[in-house]
Structure formats: structure tokens, C-alpha cells
Write a structure and sequence with these properties.
single chain; 4 helices; mainly alpha; rod-shaped; 89% helix
């Protein structure tokens, strides 16, 4: 009787480990995709910010008649803090 219980527990443990092992590649792929997406987002944010600073976009907004949008600019927010 104890041998049957032990065999059932071993079989269930093997099934759980097999399912866990089949799940690991998907989780690793998800983590890699998230890390790469985050890096790409940081790079794009940096490039957009640098290009807008180079174009003096905040100053142009005020000249074009959008003073309320210029208040949202990061340079203005930093000054008010």
C-alpha cells in the first residue's frame, strides 16, 4: 500500500516538474522581450528628447501660440520644483 502511495506521489512530482520545465522557456522569452522593449523605449525617449531640444521645440511652441503646452515642458517643470 505504501509503495502505491509513494509511486503515485513520484508520478505526480514528475508531472509537475515536466510542466514546470515546459513553462520555463516561455517565461525566459517573456523576460528577454520585456528587457529589450524597455531598452528600446529608453533609447527612443532619449533620441526624441535630444532632437526636440535641438530644435528648441519649447521655444517654438510659445512662438506658434501654444503657451499652455509649453508649460508642460520638462524644463519648466524642473524649474518649478
Amino acid at each position: 500500500m505504501w509503495e502505491q502511495v509513494q509511486q503515485a506521489l513520484n508520478q505526480s512530482m514528475v508531472r509537475v516538474l515536466n510542466e514546470l520545465a515546459s513553462l520555463v522557456p516561455g517565461v525566459v522569452a517573456l523576460i528577454i522581450a520585456m528587457v529589450l522593449s524597455t531598452l528600446l523605449a529608453w533609447i527612443l525617449a532619449y533620441l526624441v528628447r535630444r532632437s526636440l531640444l535641438g530644435l528648441r521645440f519649447d521655444d517654438r511652441l510659445q512662438r506658434w501660440g501654444f503657451p499652455r503646452m509649453a508649460e508642460w515642458s520638462p524644463s519648466r517643470v524642473r524649474r518649478s520644483l
